[in-house]
């Protein structure tokens, strides 16, 4: 790549774990600046109640002392695990598996090994780099005996390293935190360690055009969706760099896909679809469709049906291009068309 390339600046950070263990709280704590952490607004947030994340929320965050990250906060609810598996691939991310350290050793071990299997399954073994995994125990402030909790986490770490060490690069430190205190105890070690792991990834090179695409992509869209077909992205890129050949663009888009900046869906027999904002897809589309009733309250959801018509879907999402949405649902294997097409009379089954 040489002169046309720059080092990776933003590293992908996945927060995985069961519901209500403290993933979103950890994200907030990590991205909190030292000063802000003592302001009254933050003190209020510290006592916030649990509000489940639908789908995956993707946000770019600066973590004090560790650099820039694209943080993927994954919903813990089982119904979302299918969609997670499509995004969790990639060999250039760091995975933090969050667990509640007040739970019993058996429960914690079971849950962590569930997520490790999940990460392992999503990884392409032909890739040289193993996924980096760190374990973070939350609610440390609420454990009855902190020495006991610490010992438990060390045991679990060594047992799971024996089981998964061949496939995952598991950090050999344990981090026991109270997410409501962003600069206490192991939160500081966690930032440092995260910074070191990210540094290894930041050394890699990406084509320079990636930065320009990243800068522009929020202004690119198809109607109201942050989505383009391949042909459209070729045209748009020519406008920002007329010398950018299509094969360099291929490399750039694959890089941005790997980084989680966008998602390239290779559609059989049709032009590829580039989702410029993966957050839109997971939180605005998949989240509301696949959330269970308890999580759905905040959304104007689809009435539960066995089969949906194209009109049901069009009305629900108020989308001008229902065809594209259905194409994406089919691509992610989240829907099946019963008549095999996109006719008005089509009946669609959602894989909920
Ligand atoms: N005491 C204590 N409460 C926590 C801690 N981490 C999270 N919580 C609380 O646990 C609940 C669930 O946290 P949340 O971040 O929403 O969990 P998520 O579903 O994994 O994203 C919230 O009420 C948090 O305030 C912690 O380390 N200590
Ligand atoms: Mg959450």
What does the model show?
With 352 residues, this protein is α/β, with parallel strands linked by helices. The protein folds into three domains: 8-202, Rossmann fold; 207-257, no CATH class; 278-350, no CATH class. It is 40% helix and 18% strand. It is built from 13 helices and 15 strands. It has helices at 23-30, 40-45, 81-87, 105-121, 146-164, 186-202, 209-216, 230-240, 246-258, 278-290, 293-296, 310-317, 322-331, and strands spanning 5-7, 11-16, 56-63, 67-74, 93-100, 132-138, 169-170, 175-176, 205-207, 227-229, 263-265, 273-275, 308-309, 335-337, 347-350. The strands form four sheets. Strands 2, 3, 4, 5, 6, 7 and 8 form a seven-stranded mixed sheet that branches. Helix 5 (146-164) links the parallel strand 6 and strand 7 (169-170). Helix 4 packs parallel to helix 5. The termini are far apart. Residues 295-300 have low confidence and may be disordered.
Structural features:
13 helices, 15 strands, three-stranded antiparallel β-sheet, binds magnesium ion, alpha/beta, seven-stranded mixed β-sheet, single chain, 352 residues, binds guanosine-5'-diphosphate, Rossmann fold, 3 domains
Number of strands: 15
The CATH H-level homologous superfamily of the largest domain: P-loop containing nucleotide triphosphate hydrolases
Which cofactors or ions or other ligands sit in this model? guanosine-5'-diphosphate, magnesium ion
> Count of DSSP helices?
13
pLDDT below 50 for ≥5 consecutive residues: which ranges?
295-300
How many angstroms does the end-to-end distance come to? Answer: 43 Å
Strand/helix succession: EEHHEEHEHEHEEHEHEHHEEHHEHHEE
Tally of domains: 3
What structural class results from the helix and strand content?
alpha/beta
Assembly type of the chains comes to single chain
CATH class assignment of the largest domain: Alpha Beta
- Into which percent range does the helicity of residues fall? 40-55%
Q: Give me the CATH architecture of the largest domain, please.
A: 3-Layer(aba) Sandwich
CATH fold-type name of the largest domain: Rossmann fold
Radius of gyration: 21 Å
Largest sheet: 7 strands, mixed
| Overall 3D shape | globular
Beta content comes to: 15-25%
Average predicted confidence as pLDDT: 81
């Amino acid at each position: 790549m040489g002169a046309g390339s720059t080092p990776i600046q933003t590293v992908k950070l996945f927060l995985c774990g069961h519901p209500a263990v403290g993933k979103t709280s950890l994200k907030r704590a990590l991205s909190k600046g030292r000063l802000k952490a003592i302001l009254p607004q933050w003190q209020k947030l510290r006592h916030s109640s649990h509000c489940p994340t639908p789908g995956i929320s993707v946000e770019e965050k600066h973590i004090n002392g560790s650099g820039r990250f694209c943080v993927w906060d994954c919903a813990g609810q089982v119904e979302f695990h299918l969609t997670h598996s499509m995004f969790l691939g990639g060999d250039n991310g760091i995975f933090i598996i969050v667990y509640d350290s007040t739970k019993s050793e058996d429960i914690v071990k079971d849950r962590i090994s569930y997520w490790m299997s999940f990460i392992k399954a999503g990884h392409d073994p032909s890739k040289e780099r193993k996924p980096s995994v760190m374990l973070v125990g939350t609610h440390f402030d609420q454990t009855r005996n902190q020495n006991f909790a610490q010992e438990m986490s060390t045991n679990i770490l060594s047992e799971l390293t024996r089981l998964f060490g061949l496939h995952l690069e598991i950090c050999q430190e344990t981090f026991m935190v109270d997410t409501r205190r962003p600069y206490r105890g192991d939160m500081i070690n966690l930032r440092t360690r995260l910074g070191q792991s990210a540094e290894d990834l930041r050394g890699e090179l990406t084509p320079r055009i990636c930065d320009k695409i990243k800068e522009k992509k929020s202004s690119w869209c198809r109607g109201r969706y942050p989505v383009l077909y391949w042909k459209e992205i070729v045209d748009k890129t020519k406008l920002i760099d007329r010398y950018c050949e299509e094969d360099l663009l291929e490399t750039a888009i694959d890089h941005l896909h790997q980084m989680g900046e966008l998602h390239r869906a290779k559609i059989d027999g049709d032009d590829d679809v580039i989702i410029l904002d993966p957050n839109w897809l997971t939180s605005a589309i998949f989240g509301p469709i696949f959330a269970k009733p308890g999580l759905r309250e905040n959304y104007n959801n689809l009435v539960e049906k066995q089969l949906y018509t194209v009109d049901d879907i069009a009305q629900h999402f108020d989308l001008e291009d229902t065809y594209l949405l259905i194409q994406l649902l089919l691509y992610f294997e989240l829907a099946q068309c019963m008549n095999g097409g996109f006719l008005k009379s089509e009946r669609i089954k959602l894989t909920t």
